[in-house]
């Protein structure tokens, strides 16, 4: 199967890299010509437009920063939809709004092509080694058809149901990660002001009922001081807004979600849209005139698990 990949950023570039590393026939496109060139040097083909890319491949993957950008790539004059034909598959791997993926999915179906949403979860460091989790919504037959491709990009693959369900699950998991991160800022504040050994606190939390994936990963770069989670403040704010907006659409009375949105808005205002998202805990450092530094923690996350073929869960 010939694969086209649009969006070679922090996550997309790593997912596309896994495809190329595993010898798939890959055509790519990104607005950054340097990224295109890098992939071309590694053996990928380059498409001059989303339409051309869609015409040349059997499966089109989009992995883009926002629903608005994806809509432009899909619906533009030289967009993906213009290049679609019968039985081609579109896999939306961006974190997006389920109503938007359904709206675009309807246009894809009008071309007799098949839409799927397939967001990922587990951190950029796991995307680079093919060990990230992938949620997929849409027709089961199409999911099974592309499963060999998914198991190269990810380790644990979950078919979530109809189109859009994967996007809902993704924003739920991202919301939980954001809550955990904000809570860690307060936990580290109390630990620091209690004069505890922060290295031992890290181990204690990791061994306790208070542990989380966010603690095991992001706390490391917080304690190092790099905050380098390879994910930025504006993207977290986009994701938390998606969750909060969906809750309002569903008339769900929530308490924590609106607060989390406001906290990340404040973090973006203080540190900038492109600041690492884990810098949200710096609000607590600044407020309390402390820092969360400890020796022996890495300045970036590296997945040390061996790359293995993924599987459906």
Number of strands: 10
The CATH superfamily of the largest domain turns out to be NAD(P)-binding Rossmann-like Domain
The unreliable regions are none
Count of spatially separate domains: 2
Q: Number of helix segments?
A: 13
Please tell me how large the radius of gyration is: 20 Å
Q: How does the major sheet shape up?
A: 6 strands, parallel
Helix content: 40-55%
Q: Bin the strand percentage.
A: 5-15%
* SSE ordering: EHEHEHEHEHEEHEHEHHHHHHE
Strand arrangement within the widest β-sheet reads 3-2-1-4-5-6
Structure characterization notes:
This protein has 313 residues and is an alpha/beta fold. The protein has 13 helices and ten strands. Helix 8 (165-193) packs across helix 10, helix 9 (198-206) runs antiparallel to helix 10 (213-224) and helix 11 (233-249) packs antiparallel against helix 12 (256-271). The longest helix has 29 residues, at 165-193. The protein is globular, with a radius of gyration of 20 Å. The model has no long low-confidence stretch (mean pLDDT 97).
Short descriptors:
alpha/beta; 10 strands; globular; 13 helices; Rossmann fold; 6-stranded parallel β-sheet; 50% helix; 313 residues; N-(1-d-carboxylethyl)-l-norvaline Dehydrogenase, domain 2
What topology emerges from the helices and strands here?
Layout lengths: L2 E4 L5 H10 L4 E4 L3 H9 L3 E2 L3 H7 L2 E4 L4 H9 L13 E4 L5 H13 L3 E4 L2 E2 L2 H4 L4 E6 L2 H14 E8 L3 H29 L4 H9 L6 H12 L8 H17 L6 H16 L10 H7 L22 E2 L1
Parallel strand pairs: 1-2, 1-4, 2-3, 4-5, 5-6, 8-9, 9-10
Antiparallel strand pairs: 7-8
Write a concise synopsis of the structure shown.
This protein is α/β, with parallel strands linked by helices and 313 residues long.
